[in-house]
Amino acid sequence: xxxxSRPMIKACLNSFxxxxxxxxxxxxxxxxxxxxxxxxxxxxTSRLPNxxxxxxxxxxxxxxxxxxxxQTHDPIDKIPYIQKSALHGHxxxxxxxxxxxxxxxxxxxxxxxxxxxxxxxxxxxxxxxxVILIMTCSIREGAEQKIWNRLNQLRVLKRKKSVSTKGSxxxxxxxxCMAERLKSKIVEREKMVDLVCGPDxxxxxxxxxxxxxxxxxxxxxxxxxxxxxxxxxxxxLNADSCSAFVSIMRGCDNMCSYCIVPFTxxxxxxxxxxxxxxxxKILSDKGIKEVTLLGQNVNSxxxxxxxxxxxxxxxxxATHLSAGFKTIxxxxxxxxxxxxxxxxxxxxxxxxxxxxxxxxPKDFPDEVLQLIQERSNICNQIHLPAQSGNNEVLMAMxxxxxxxxxxDLVYHIRDIIPDVALSSDFIAGFxxxxxxxxLETVNLMRQVKYSFVYCFPYSMRGKTHAYHRLTDDxxxxxxxxxxxxxxxxxxxxxxxxxxxxxxxxxxxLVEGKSKRSVHDLAGRNDGNKKVIFxxxxxxxxxxxxxxxxxxxxxxxxVQIVRATSxxxxxxxxxxxxxxxxxxxxxxxxxxxxxxxx
Length: 597
Ligand code: SAH
Ligand code: SF4
Ligand code: F3S
Description:
Pfam families: Radical_SAM (PF04055), TRAM (PF01938), UPF0004 (PF00919). This protein is 32% helix and 18% strand.
Protein backbone atom coordinates (compact mmCIF):
# COMPACT_ATOMS: atom_id res chain seq x y z
CA UNK A 1 0.00 0.00 0.00
CA UNK A 2 1.48 3.31 -0.99
CA UNK A 3 2.86 5.43 1.75
CA UNK A 4 2.37 2.89 4.51
CA SER A 5 5.59 1.00 4.48
CA ARG A 6 9.09 1.61 3.25
CA PRO A 7 9.52 -0.77 0.33
CA MET A 8 11.15 -3.78 1.92
CA ILE A 9 13.40 -4.89 -0.81
CA LYS A 10 13.57 -8.58 -1.32
CA ALA A 11 15.54 -8.49 -4.47
CA CYS A 12 16.14 -11.85 -6.05
CA LEU A 13 19.31 -10.83 -7.70
CA ASN A 14 18.27 -12.23 -11.02
CA SER A 15 19.33 -11.42 -14.52
CA PHE A 16 22.09 -9.07 -13.48
CA UNK A 17 24.67 -11.69 -12.73
CA UNK A 18 26.20 -11.61 -16.14
CA UNK A 19 26.84 -7.89 -15.94
CA UNK A 20 29.52 -7.97 -13.29
CA UNK A 21 31.70 -9.97 -15.63
CA UNK A 22 31.98 -6.94 -17.90
CA UNK A 23 32.82 -4.48 -15.17
CA UNK A 24 36.38 -3.46 -15.72
CA UNK A 25 38.73 -2.71 -12.92
CA UNK A 26 38.88 1.07 -12.75
CA UNK A 27 42.13 2.61 -13.89
CA UNK A 28 42.35 4.85 -10.88
CA UNK A 29 44.33 3.74 -7.93
CA UNK A 30 42.14 4.64 -4.99
CA UNK A 31 39.00 2.82 -6.11
CA UNK A 32 39.28 -0.85 -6.72
CA UNK A 33 37.64 -4.16 -6.24
CA UNK A 34 38.52 -5.90 -3.04
CA UNK A 35 40.82 -8.74 -3.77
CA UNK A 36 42.93 -10.47 -1.23
CA UNK A 37 46.04 -9.03 -2.85
CA UNK A 38 44.75 -5.55 -3.28
CA UNK A 39 43.38 -5.57 0.23
CA UNK A 40 46.94 -5.52 1.42
CA UNK A 41 47.58 -2.24 -0.39
CA UNK A 42 44.53 -0.62 1.11
CA UNK A 43 45.47 2.74 2.56
CA UNK A 44 43.77 2.55 5.91
CA THR A 45 44.33 4.77 8.85
CA SER A 46 44.41 1.92 11.32
CA ARG A 47 46.05 -1.41 10.62
CA LEU A 48 47.01 -4.51 12.40
CA PRO A 49 50.65 -5.19 13.00
CA ASN A 50 52.02 -8.04 10.94
CA UNK A 51 51.61 -10.60 13.68
CA UNK A 52 48.20 -11.50 15.09
CA UNK A 53 47.08 -9.54 18.14
CA UNK A 54 44.54 -10.55 20.73
CA UNK A 55 41.92 -8.53 18.87
CA UNK A 56 42.83 -10.37 15.73
CA UNK A 57 41.94 -13.71 17.25
CA UNK A 58 38.80 -12.40 18.87
CA UNK A 59 37.61 -11.00 15.55
CA UNK A 60 38.30 -14.20 13.74
CA UNK A 61 37.24 -16.75 16.28
CA UNK A 62 34.29 -18.96 15.60
CA UNK A 63 31.08 -18.58 17.54
CA UNK A 64 32.22 -15.44 19.27
CA UNK A 65 30.19 -12.36 20.01
CA UNK A 66 32.11 -9.23 19.28
CA UNK A 67 31.05 -5.67 19.33
CA UNK A 68 34.17 -3.57 19.43
CA UNK A 69 33.99 0.05 18.43
CA UNK A 70 37.01 -0.02 16.20
CA GLN A 71 38.03 -2.52 13.62
CA THR A 72 41.23 -2.69 11.72
CA HIS A 73 41.47 -3.93 8.17
CA ASP A 74 43.85 -6.77 7.90
CA PRO A 75 44.72 -8.06 4.44
CA ILE A 76 42.93 -11.36 4.52
CA ASP A 77 45.71 -13.16 2.63
CA LYS A 78 47.96 -12.44 5.64
CA ILE A 79 45.74 -14.24 8.14
CA PRO A 80 48.19 -16.72 9.68
CA TYR A 81 46.01 -19.80 10.11
CA ILE A 82 44.17 -19.84 6.77
CA GLN A 83 45.70 -20.95 3.49
CA LYS A 84 45.25 -18.41 0.73
CA SER A 85 43.59 -21.03 -1.48
CA ALA A 86 40.90 -21.62 1.17
CA LEU A 87 39.83 -18.00 0.78
CA HIS A 88 39.05 -18.64 -2.87
CA GLY A 89 35.47 -19.55 -3.72
CA HIS A 90 36.50 -21.97 -6.52
CA UNK A 91 33.30 -21.11 -8.38
CA UNK A 92 30.95 -21.79 -5.46
CA UNK A 93 27.56 -20.26 -6.11
CA UNK A 94 26.16 -17.53 -3.89
CA UNK A 95 22.51 -16.49 -3.72
CA UNK A 96 21.60 -13.14 -2.09
CA UNK A 97 18.32 -12.24 -0.41
CA UNK A 98 18.04 -8.54 0.37
CA UNK A 99 15.67 -6.97 2.93
CA UNK A 100 15.57 -3.47 4.46
CA UNK A 101 16.62 -0.05 3.24
CA UNK A 102 18.56 1.10 0.15
CA UNK A 103 21.79 0.95 2.18
CA UNK A 104 21.26 -2.79 2.30
CA UNK A 105 21.06 -2.99 -1.49
CA UNK A 106 24.33 -1.10 -1.77
CA UNK A 107 25.94 -3.16 1.00
CA UNK A 108 24.98 -6.32 -0.88
CA UNK A 109 26.71 -4.87 -3.94
CA UNK A 110 29.82 -4.36 -1.81
CA UNK A 111 29.65 -7.86 -0.29
CA UNK A 112 29.14 -9.31 -3.76
CA UNK A 113 32.09 -7.34 -5.15
CA UNK A 114 34.29 -8.82 -2.40
CA UNK A 115 33.15 -12.39 -3.05
CA UNK A 116 33.20 -11.95 -6.82
CA UNK A 117 36.86 -10.98 -6.70
CA UNK A 118 37.54 -14.00 -4.52
CA UNK A 119 36.34 -16.56 -7.04
CA UNK A 120 32.67 -16.94 -6.11
CA UNK A 121 29.88 -16.98 -8.68
CA UNK A 122 26.41 -15.62 -8.28
CA UNK A 123 23.20 -17.58 -8.79
CA UNK A 124 19.58 -16.54 -8.86
CA UNK A 125 18.32 -20.04 -8.13
CA UNK A 126 18.32 -21.16 -4.49
CA UNK A 127 18.33 -24.82 -5.44
CA UNK A 128 21.75 -24.57 -7.10
CA UNK A 129 23.28 -22.30 -4.43
CA UNK A 130 26.23 -23.42 -2.28
CA VAL A 131 25.85 -20.35 -0.10
CA ILE A 132 22.75 -18.27 0.71
CA LEU A 133 23.44 -14.85 2.23
CA ILE A 134 20.54 -12.85 3.70
CA MET A 135 21.01 -9.10 4.06
CA THR A 136 18.80 -8.23 7.02
CA CYS A 137 17.01 -5.32 8.70
CA SER A 138 16.17 -4.76 12.39
CA ILE A 139 14.27 -1.50 12.25
CA ARG A 140 11.01 -3.04 13.53
CA GLU A 141 10.06 -6.38 15.05
CA GLY A 142 8.18 -7.24 11.84
CA ALA A 143 11.32 -6.77 9.73
CA GLU A 144 13.14 -9.39 11.82
CA GLN A 145 10.17 -11.74 11.84
CA LYS A 146 10.37 -11.87 8.04
CA ILE A 147 13.94 -13.14 8.31
CA TRP A 148 13.02 -15.84 10.85
CA ASN A 149 10.23 -16.98 8.50
CA ARG A 150 12.68 -17.08 5.63
CA LEU A 151 15.09 -19.16 7.72
CA ASN A 152 12.28 -21.65 8.37
CA GLN A 153 11.91 -22.16 4.62
CA LEU A 154 15.64 -22.44 4.13
CA ARG A 155 15.98 -25.10 6.82
CA VAL A 156 14.01 -27.48 4.59
CA LEU A 157 16.19 -26.62 1.59
CA LYS A 158 19.37 -27.14 3.61
CA ARG A 159 18.21 -30.56 4.79
CA LYS A 160 17.32 -31.67 1.25
CA LYS A 161 20.63 -30.40 -0.08
CA SER A 162 22.71 -32.16 2.55
CA VAL A 163 21.01 -35.47 1.64
CA SER A 164 21.45 -34.98 -2.11
CA THR A 165 25.04 -33.68 -2.09
CA LYS A 166 26.34 -36.01 0.62
CA GLY A 167 28.77 -33.88 2.52
CA SER A 168 28.87 -30.44 0.87
CA UNK A 169 25.96 -28.84 2.68
CA UNK A 170 24.39 -25.53 1.82
CA UNK A 171 25.90 -22.68 3.90
CA UNK A 172 23.55 -20.01 5.23
CA UNK A 173 24.74 -16.58 6.32
CA UNK A 174 23.03 -13.65 8.05
CA UNK A 175 24.45 -10.25 7.08
CA UNK A 176 23.63 -6.68 8.07
CA CYS A 177 21.68 -5.05 10.88
CA MET A 178 20.07 -8.14 12.40
CA ALA A 179 23.47 -9.85 12.48
CA GLU A 180 24.78 -6.84 14.39
CA ARG A 181 21.82 -6.63 16.79
CA LEU A 182 21.58 -10.29 17.72
CA LYS A 183 25.15 -11.47 17.13
CA SER A 184 25.69 -15.12 18.08
CA LYS A 185 22.16 -15.31 19.52
CA ILE A 186 21.13 -15.98 15.93
CA VAL A 187 23.19 -19.15 15.86
CA GLU A 188 21.88 -20.18 19.27
CA ARG A 189 18.28 -19.85 18.08
CA GLU A 190 18.79 -21.18 14.54
CA LYS A 191 21.50 -23.81 14.57
CA MET A 192 21.59 -24.17 10.83
CA VAL A 193 22.99 -20.62 10.39
CA ASP A 194 26.70 -20.91 9.50
CA LEU A 195 27.77 -17.30 9.36
CA VAL A 196 26.82 -14.01 11.07
CA CYS A 197 28.46 -10.93 9.57
CA GLY A 198 27.82 -7.35 10.73
CA PRO A 199 27.69 -4.27 8.44
CA ASP A 200 31.36 -3.36 8.95
CA UNK A 201 32.79 -6.86 8.46
CA UNK A 202 32.11 -7.66 4.80
CA UNK A 203 35.80 -7.65 3.90
CA UNK A 204 36.08 -10.68 6.16
CA UNK A 205 33.46 -12.72 4.25
CA UNK A 206 35.94 -14.90 2.29
CA UNK A 207 37.69 -15.90 5.51
CA UNK A 208 34.43 -16.45 7.33
CA UNK A 209 33.12 -18.68 4.54
CA UNK A 210 36.36 -20.65 4.58
CA UNK A 211 35.98 -21.00 8.33
CA UNK A 212 32.52 -22.56 8.03
CA UNK A 213 34.04 -25.64 6.36
CA UNK A 214 35.01 -26.82 9.87
CA UNK A 215 31.32 -27.18 10.63
CA UNK A 216 31.51 -24.34 13.17
CA UNK A 217 29.58 -21.11 12.74
CA UNK A 218 31.66 -18.02 12.03
CA UNK A 219 30.68 -14.70 13.64
CA UNK A 220 32.19 -11.28 13.00
CA UNK A 221 30.16 -8.34 14.23
CA UNK A 222 32.94 -5.87 14.94
CA UNK A 223 31.86 -2.31 14.33
CA UNK A 224 34.40 0.11 12.95
CA UNK A 225 35.19 3.78 13.42
CA UNK A 226 36.57 4.21 9.92
CA UNK A 227 35.24 1.52 7.58
CA UNK A 228 33.48 3.09 4.58
CA UNK A 229 34.43 0.50 1.92
CA UNK A 230 35.72 3.55 0.02
CA UNK A 231 38.10 1.50 -2.13
CA UNK A 232 35.55 -1.11 -3.18
CA UNK A 233 33.65 -0.62 -6.41
CA UNK A 234 30.25 -2.18 -5.73
CA UNK A 235 29.12 -4.68 -8.39
CA UNK A 236 25.61 -3.51 -9.20
CA LEU A 237 22.79 -5.95 -8.58
CA ASN A 238 20.58 -4.60 -11.31
CA ALA A 239 22.91 -3.90 -14.18
CA ASP A 240 19.96 -3.12 -16.49
CA SER A 241 18.90 -0.13 -14.44
CA CYS A 242 19.84 3.42 -15.43
CA SER A 243 20.01 4.37 -11.73
CA ALA A 244 22.62 3.48 -9.13
CA PHE A 245 23.24 3.92 -5.40
CA VAL A 246 26.48 5.37 -4.06
CA SER A 247 27.23 5.18 -0.31
CA ILE A 248 28.75 8.39 1.02
CA MET A 249 28.66 7.83 4.76
CA ARG A 250 27.77 5.15 7.29
CA GLY A 251 26.39 5.05 10.81
CA CYS A 252 24.45 7.51 12.90
CA ASP A 253 25.27 9.60 15.99
CA ASN A 254 21.77 10.99 16.54
CA MET A 255 20.40 8.42 18.95
CA CYS A 256 16.70 9.11 18.36
CA SER A 257 15.13 7.36 21.31
CA TYR A 258 13.14 4.80 19.28
CA CYS A 259 15.83 3.82 16.79
CA ILE A 260 18.09 0.78 16.61
CA VAL A 261 20.23 2.09 13.73
CA PRO A 262 23.03 3.68 15.85
CA PHE A 263 23.44 0.26 17.52
CA THR A 264 23.45 -1.76 14.32
CA UNK A 265 25.40 0.60 12.08
CA UNK A 266 27.73 2.20 14.61
CA UNK A 267 29.27 5.66 14.67
CA UNK A 268 28.93 8.20 11.89
CA UNK A 269 31.83 8.28 9.41
CA UNK A 270 32.14 9.69 5.91
CA UNK A 271 33.79 8.38 2.83
CA UNK A 272 36.41 10.68 1.24
CA UNK A 273 34.97 13.01 -1.43
CA UNK A 274 37.47 11.98 -4.08
CA UNK A 275 36.56 8.30 -3.95
CA UNK A 276 32.86 9.19 -4.25
CA UNK A 277 33.50 11.45 -7.24
CA UNK A 278 35.56 8.72 -8.89
CA UNK A 279 32.78 6.19 -8.44
CA UNK A 280 30.23 8.63 -9.88
CA LYS A 281 32.52 9.21 -12.89
CA ILE A 282 32.73 5.48 -13.52
CA LEU A 283 28.94 5.20 -13.31
CA SER A 284 28.55 8.13 -15.69
CA ASP A 285 30.94 6.47 -18.18
CA LYS A 286 28.75 3.38 -18.03
CA GLY A 287 25.72 5.46 -19.00
CA ILE A 288 24.08 5.68 -15.57
CA LYS A 289 21.62 8.58 -15.58
CA GLU A 290 20.69 8.85 -11.94
CA VAL A 291 22.73 8.46 -8.78
CA THR A 292 21.28 8.38 -5.28
CA LEU A 293 23.79 9.29 -2.57
CA LEU A 294 23.18 7.06 0.42
CA GLY A 295 23.77 7.23 4.15
CA GLN A 296 21.87 6.92 7.42
CA ASN A 297 22.33 10.69 7.78
CA VAL A 298 23.41 11.72 4.37
CA ASN A 299 23.50 15.48 4.94
CA SER A 300 25.62 15.16 8.11
CA UNK A 301 28.40 14.18 5.68
CA UNK A 302 31.81 15.42 6.89
CA UNK A 303 34.95 14.25 5.14
CA UNK A 304 37.97 14.75 7.40
CA UNK A 305 40.24 12.39 5.49
CA UNK A 306 42.56 15.18 4.34
CA UNK A 307 44.46 17.04 7.00
CA UNK A 308 43.89 20.51 5.54
CA UNK A 309 40.15 19.98 6.01
CA UNK A 310 40.30 18.00 9.23
CA UNK A 311 39.28 21.07 11.16
CA UNK A 312 40.28 23.05 14.15
CA UNK A 313 37.99 24.67 16.62
CA UNK A 314 37.14 27.92 14.85
CA UNK A 315 33.45 28.55 15.21
CA UNK A 316 33.02 29.08 11.47
CA UNK A 317 34.18 25.53 10.79
CA ALA A 318 31.47 24.06 13.06
CA THR A 319 28.52 22.24 11.55
CA HIS A 320 25.80 24.72 10.50
CA LEU A 321 22.54 23.36 11.80
CA SER A 322 19.17 24.43 10.43
CA ALA A 323 17.67 27.22 12.58
CA GLY A 324 15.87 25.87 15.68
CA PHE A 325 17.55 22.43 15.54
CA LYS A 326 19.96 20.92 18.03
CA THR A 327 21.89 17.70 18.37
CA ILE A 328 22.46 15.29 21.21
CA UNK A 329 26.19 15.38 20.44
CA UNK A 330 28.66 18.28 20.72
CA UNK A 331 29.29 20.43 17.59
CA UNK A 332 31.62 18.80 15.08
CA UNK A 333 34.34 20.91 13.52
CA UNK A 334 36.00 20.96 10.15
CA UNK A 335 35.81 18.61 7.22
CA UNK A 336 34.39 18.94 3.74
CA UNK A 337 30.62 19.11 4.11
CA UNK A 338 27.60 17.84 2.22
CA UNK A 339 27.39 21.05 0.15
CA UNK A 340 31.02 20.54 -1.00
CA UNK A 341 30.20 16.98 -1.97
CA UNK A 342 26.97 17.89 -3.79
CA UNK A 343 28.86 20.60 -5.65
CA UNK A 344 31.54 18.16 -6.85
CA UNK A 345 29.23 15.25 -7.61
CA UNK A 346 26.75 17.35 -9.57
CA UNK A 347 29.56 18.63 -11.80
CA UNK A 348 30.62 15.15 -12.92
CA UNK A 349 27.91 14.85 -15.55
CA UNK A 350 25.27 17.54 -16.09
CA UNK A 351 23.02 14.90 -17.67
CA UNK A 352 23.08 12.76 -14.54
CA UNK A 353 20.35 13.30 -11.96
CA UNK A 354 21.50 13.45 -8.34
CA UNK A 355 19.29 12.45 -5.41
CA UNK A 356 20.15 11.71 -1.78
CA UNK A 357 18.62 9.76 1.10
CA UNK A 358 18.12 9.68 4.07
CA UNK A 359 18.78 13.17 5.34
CA UNK A 360 17.99 14.61 8.78
CA PRO A 361 16.14 17.96 8.92
CA LYS A 362 18.81 19.45 11.22
CA ASP A 363 21.46 19.55 8.49
CA PHE A 364 19.98 21.77 5.79
CA PRO A 365 22.13 24.91 5.72
CA ASP A 366 21.38 27.47 2.99
CA GLU A 367 24.46 26.37 0.98
CA VAL A 368 22.80 22.99 0.40
CA LEU A 369 19.39 24.48 -0.45
CA GLN A 370 20.91 27.07 -2.83
CA LEU A 371 22.86 24.36 -4.62
CA ILE A 372 19.74 22.22 -5.08
CA GLN A 373 17.98 25.25 -6.48
CA GLU A 374 20.82 26.26 -8.81
CA ARG A 375 21.94 22.95 -10.27
CA SER A 376 19.47 21.57 -12.76
CA ASN A 377 20.69 18.00 -12.24
CA ILE A 378 20.20 17.98 -8.45
CA CYS A 379 16.57 16.93 -8.16
CA ASN A 380 14.16 19.27 -6.42
CA GLN A 381 13.18 16.63 -3.97
CA ILE A 382 13.92 16.53 -0.25
CA HIS A 383 13.08 13.84 2.27
CA LEU A 384 12.39 15.64 5.53
CA PRO A 385 11.51 13.00 8.14
CA ALA A 386 9.23 14.65 10.72
CA GLN A 387 8.26 11.51 12.77
CA SER A 388 5.56 13.42 14.71
CA GLY A 389 3.65 16.72 14.71
CA ASN A 390 3.55 17.04 18.49
CA ASN A 391 6.24 18.72 20.59
CA GLU A 392 6.03 16.38 23.62
CA VAL A 393 6.40 13.35 21.36
CA LEU A 394 9.25 14.96 19.43
CA MET A 395 10.99 15.67 22.74
CA ALA A 396 10.49 12.04 23.88
CA MET A 397 11.81 10.89 20.53
CA UNK A 398 14.90 13.10 21.06
CA UNK A 399 14.59 14.55 17.59
CA UNK A 400 16.13 17.91 18.55
CA UNK A 401 13.40 20.16 17.10
CA UNK A 402 9.92 21.46 17.70
CA UNK A 403 7.10 21.30 15.18
CA UNK A 404 7.42 25.10 14.83
CA UNK A 405 11.12 24.82 13.89
CA UNK A 406 10.24 22.04 11.44
CA UNK A 407 7.51 24.17 9.80
CA ASP A 408 9.86 27.18 9.61
CA LEU A 409 12.31 24.94 7.78
CA VAL A 410 9.57 23.78 5.39
CA TYR A 411 8.69 27.42 4.58
CA HIS A 412 12.35 28.33 4.23
CA ILE A 413 13.00 25.41 1.85
CA ARG A 414 9.95 26.38 -0.22
CA ASP A 415 11.14 29.99 -0.35
CA ILE A 416 14.44 28.90 -1.85
CA ILE A 417 13.16 25.96 -3.94
CA PRO A 418 9.52 26.80 -4.74
CA ASP A 419 8.69 23.62 -6.68
CA VAL A 420 10.39 21.23 -4.23
CA ALA A 421 8.75 17.84 -3.58
CA LEU A 422 8.87 17.02 0.14
CA SER A 423 8.52 13.56 1.63
CA SER A 424 8.62 12.33 5.21
CA ASP A 425 8.64 9.47 7.72
CA PHE A 426 6.12 9.21 10.57
CA ILE A 427 5.77 6.86 13.51
CA ALA A 428 2.25 6.09 14.76
CA GLY A 429 1.70 5.39 18.46
CA PHE A 430 5.09 6.22 19.99
CA UNK A 431 5.39 5.96 23.79
CA UNK A 432 3.05 8.47 25.47
CA UNK A 433 1.38 9.60 22.22
CA UNK A 434 -2.12 10.84 23.08
CA UNK A 435 -5.02 11.16 20.65
CA UNK A 436 -4.43 14.93 20.70
CA UNK A 437 -0.75 14.40 19.81
CA UNK A 438 -1.77 12.07 16.98
CA LEU A 439 -4.21 14.66 15.61
CA GLU A 440 -1.40 17.22 15.60
CA THR A 441 0.56 14.83 13.37
CA VAL A 442 -2.47 14.58 11.07
CA ASN A 443 -2.53 18.37 11.04
CA LEU A 444 1.17 18.63 10.15
CA MET A 445 0.63 16.22 7.28
CA ARG A 446 -2.23 18.34 5.93
CA GLN A 447 -0.22 21.56 6.30
CA VAL A 448 2.94 20.38 4.55
CA LYS A 449 1.31 18.36 1.72
CA TYR A 450 3.96 15.73 1.18
CA SER A 451 4.56 14.05 -2.15
CA PHE A 452 5.37 10.82 -0.34
CA VAL A 453 5.15 9.53 3.21
CA TYR A 454 6.44 6.40 4.92
CA CYS A 455 4.41 5.64 8.00
CA PHE A 456 5.16 2.95 10.59
CA PRO A 457 3.41 1.74 13.74
CA TYR A 458 5.90 2.10 16.61
CA SER A 459 7.87 -1.04 17.41
CA MET A 460 9.88 -1.06 20.65
CA ARG A 461 13.52 -2.05 20.09
CA GLY A 462 15.83 -3.35 22.80
CA LYS A 463 18.92 -1.23 23.71
CA THR A 464 17.27 2.06 22.68
CA HIS A 465 16.65 4.95 25.07
CA ALA A 466 12.88 4.39 24.75
CA TYR A 467 13.28 0.73 25.69
CA HIS A 468 15.10 1.64 28.90
CA ARG A 469 13.24 4.80 29.90
CA LEU A 470 9.79 4.98 28.28
CA THR A 471 6.65 2.87 28.29
CA ASP A 472 5.24 1.39 25.11
CA ASP A 473 1.76 2.36 26.26
CA UNK A 474 -0.27 2.77 23.06
CA UNK A 475 -2.17 -0.50 22.45
CA UNK A 476 -1.30 -2.26 19.18
CA UNK A 477 -4.87 -1.86 17.84
CA UNK A 478 -4.69 1.88 18.50
CA UNK A 479 -1.29 2.15 16.79
CA UNK A 480 -2.81 0.36 13.79
CA UNK A 481 -5.81 2.73 13.72
CA UNK A 482 -3.59 5.83 13.89
CA UNK A 483 -1.33 4.37 11.23
CA UNK A 484 -4.35 3.83 8.95
CA UNK A 485 -5.61 7.34 9.59
CA UNK A 486 -2.22 8.88 8.76
CA UNK A 487 -2.07 6.81 5.58
CA UNK A 488 -5.50 7.83 4.41
CA UNK A 489 -4.92 11.53 5.19
CA UNK A 490 -1.68 11.32 3.22
CA UNK A 491 -3.50 9.77 0.25
CA UNK A 492 -6.22 12.41 0.36
CA UNK A 493 -3.65 15.23 0.34
CA UNK A 494 -1.31 13.74 -2.24
CA UNK A 495 -4.20 13.15 -4.64
CA UNK A 496 -4.83 16.92 -4.65
CA UNK A 497 -1.11 17.57 -5.10
CA UNK A 498 -0.90 15.15 -8.02
CA UNK A 499 -4.08 16.44 -9.68
CA UNK A 500 -2.65 19.96 -9.56
CA UNK A 501 0.08 18.73 -11.92
CA UNK A 502 -2.35 17.84 -14.70
CA UNK A 503 -1.51 19.93 -17.76
CA UNK A 504 2.19 20.33 -16.86
CA UNK A 505 4.99 19.25 -19.16
CA UNK A 506 7.48 17.32 -17.04
CA UNK A 507 10.94 15.90 -17.59
CA UNK A 508 10.81 12.13 -17.14
CA LEU A 509 13.74 9.74 -16.92
CA VAL A 510 12.50 6.50 -18.48
CA GLU A 511 12.97 3.38 -16.34
CA GLY A 512 11.32 0.70 -18.49
CA LYS A 513 8.02 -1.03 -19.16
CA SER A 514 5.11 -0.27 -16.88
CA LYS A 515 4.23 -3.23 -14.66
CA ARG A 516 0.52 -2.70 -15.25
CA SER A 517 0.30 -2.48 -19.03
CA VAL A 518 2.45 -3.78 -21.86
CA HIS A 519 1.52 -0.70 -23.92
CA ASP A 520 2.94 1.73 -21.38
CA LEU A 521 6.34 2.85 -20.15
CA ALA A 522 7.21 4.12 -16.67
CA GLY A 523 9.70 6.68 -15.45
CA ARG A 524 10.22 9.27 -12.71
CA ASN A 525 9.80 13.03 -12.73
CA ASP A 526 12.18 15.40 -10.95
CA GLY A 527 10.21 15.02 -7.69
CA ASN A 528 10.65 11.21 -7.91
CA LYS A 529 6.97 10.60 -8.67
CA LYS A 530 6.22 7.72 -10.98
CA VAL A 531 4.89 8.78 -14.41
CA ILE A 532 3.18 6.26 -16.72
CA PHE A 533 2.88 7.08 -20.41
CA UNK A 534 2.14 5.42 -23.75
CA UNK A 535 4.96 3.51 -25.38
CA UNK A 536 5.17 5.23 -28.73
CA UNK A 537 7.80 6.85 -30.96
CA UNK A 538 8.27 10.60 -30.37
CA UNK A 539 10.30 13.35 -32.08
CA UNK A 540 14.07 13.30 -31.46
CA UNK A 541 13.80 16.83 -30.11
CA UNK A 542 11.19 19.49 -29.69
CA UNK A 543 10.89 20.71 -33.28
CA UNK A 544 12.15 17.66 -35.13
CA UNK A 545 10.09 15.62 -37.61
CA UNK A 546 12.24 12.55 -37.09
CA UNK A 547 10.67 10.02 -34.71
CA UNK A 548 12.56 7.78 -32.29
CA UNK A 549 11.41 4.99 -29.94
CA UNK A 550 11.60 5.71 -26.22
CA UNK A 551 13.99 3.44 -24.29
CA UNK A 552 15.16 3.13 -20.67
CA UNK A 553 17.66 5.86 -19.77
CA UNK A 554 16.07 8.41 -22.15
CA UNK A 555 14.83 11.78 -20.99
CA UNK A 556 11.42 12.56 -22.47
CA UNK A 557 9.02 15.44 -21.96
CA VAL A 558 5.63 14.11 -20.86
CA GLN A 559 2.38 16.04 -20.74
CA ILE A 560 0.51 15.03 -17.57
CA VAL A 561 -3.14 14.20 -18.34
CA ARG A 562 -4.39 12.21 -15.33
CA ALA A 563 -3.40 11.59 -11.72
CA THR A 564 -4.14 9.14 -8.91
CA SER A 565 -2.76 9.30 -5.37
CA UNK A 566 0.06 7.02 -6.48
CA UNK A 567 1.09 7.94 -10.03
CA UNK A 568 0.83 10.50 -12.79
CA UNK A 569 -0.33 9.46 -16.27
CA UNK A 570 0.79 11.32 -19.35
CA UNK A 571 1.45 11.55 -23.07
CA UNK A 572 5.08 11.58 -24.27
CA UNK A 573 5.84 14.65 -26.40
CA UNK A 574 9.50 14.57 -27.46
CA UNK A 575 13.01 13.45 -26.51
CA UNK A 576 15.18 15.98 -24.73
CA UNK A 577 18.24 16.34 -22.53
CA UNK A 578 18.27 17.43 -18.91
CA UNK A 579 20.15 20.61 -19.80
CA UNK A 580 17.91 21.55 -22.75
CA UNK A 581 14.79 21.01 -20.72
CA UNK A 582 16.13 23.12 -17.89
CA UNK A 583 17.18 25.96 -20.27
CA UNK A 584 13.73 25.95 -21.84
CA UNK A 585 12.11 26.07 -18.38
CA UNK A 586 14.28 29.01 -17.31
CA UNK A 587 13.55 30.89 -20.54
CA UNK A 588 9.82 30.31 -20.33
CA UNK A 589 9.82 31.36 -16.66
CA UNK A 590 11.69 34.53 -17.60
CA UNK A 591 9.24 35.13 -20.42
CA UNK A 592 6.32 34.52 -18.07
CA UNK A 593 7.69 36.88 -15.43
CA UNK A 594 8.36 39.57 -18.05
CA UNK A 595 4.83 39.34 -19.43
CA UNK A 596 3.25 39.70 -16.00
CA UNK A 597 5.24 42.86 -15.07
N1 SAH B 1 18.13 7.99 9.23
C1 SAH B 1 16.86 8.09 8.71
C2 SAH B 1 15.94 6.91 8.84
C3 SAH B 1 16.34 5.64 9.31
S1 SAH B 1 15.14 4.51 9.79
C4 SAH B 1 16.16 9.26 9.34
O1 SAH B 1 16.47 9.71 10.41
O2 SAH B 1 15.22 9.66 8.71
C5 SAH B 1 13.79 4.86 8.74
C6 SAH B 1 12.55 5.20 9.47
O3 SAH B 1 12.11 4.09 10.23
C7 SAH B 1 12.63 6.31 10.50
O4 SAH B 1 12.58 7.55 9.91
C8 SAH B 1 11.43 6.05 11.37
O5 SAH B 1 10.28 6.70 10.87
C9 SAH B 1 11.25 4.54 11.24
N2 SAH B 1 11.59 3.86 12.49
C10 SAH B 1 12.79 3.79 13.07
N3 SAH B 1 12.71 3.11 14.23
C11 SAH B 1 11.42 2.71 14.36
C12 SAH B 1 10.72 1.97 15.34
N4 SAH B 1 11.33 1.51 16.42
N5 SAH B 1 9.40 1.74 15.15
C13 SAH B 1 8.79 2.22 14.04
N6 SAH B 1 9.40 2.93 13.10
C14 SAH B 1 10.71 3.19 13.25
FE1 SF4 C 1 17.62 6.45 13.52
FE2 SF4 C 1 17.39 8.97 14.20
FE3 SF4 C 1 19.69 8.05 13.22
FE4 SF4 C 1 17.56 8.29 11.62
S1 SF4 C 1 18.63 9.97 12.65
S2 SF4 C 1 18.97 6.55 11.76
S3 SF4 C 1 15.89 7.80 12.97
S4 SF4 C 1 18.78 7.48 15.16
FE1 F3S D 1 17.01 -1.63 8.52
FE2 F3S D 1 19.53 -1.34 9.11
FE3 F3S D 1 18.49 -0.04 7.07
S1 F3S D 1 17.89 -1.54 10.57
S2 F3S D 1 16.42 0.33 7.75
S3 F3S D 1 18.69 -2.21 7.22
S4 F3S D 1 20.05 0.72 8.45
